[in-house]
Amino acid sequence: MSKEMQELQKQWHSMMQTIHGNANVVAFMNSRVGQYLDDHPFVALSLLMFIAVSAIPVGFFLVFVVTTAVMACIGVIVMEGVVIAIGGIALLCVLCGLGALSLGVSGVLSVSYIALSTLVNYWCASRGQIRKQDVNGSLPQKQPGLDLSANTAKSE
Description:
Structural class: mainly alpha
Distance between the termini: 47 Å
Strand content: under 5%
Largest sheet: none
Number of strands: 0
Oligomer: single chain
Radius of gyration: 28 Å
Number of helices: 6
């Protein structure tokens, strides 16, 4: 492993120790919800994505509610109820769409993580075998069952 990678790994480990040492994090992780999310990382990632992408629409809705409340103080009381109801339905539709989007994005991220970690593990394992063979002075040997060029030459 290169020195930069080792340094990055040390920094990451230090940051994770700081986070896991926080009293609020420890209290949350000891709760039933924290234990459930720890056991189900896909649900945790989906929840995180949903919260992140729904913050802006909820903020706009709150600004909208305050604006209509100010208009109600001026005298548009009936209109406020209708407009807030329509806005609430619109917010519900947006949040349902964002929930589906966050599930999709977290699914893609999970599959990408699994695929990339498998590729990196395979790459590191193959590099380790090549280094061992270089140290022993032997060349990598091909497996006879995997050589397709010999099979095609025999069939012709």
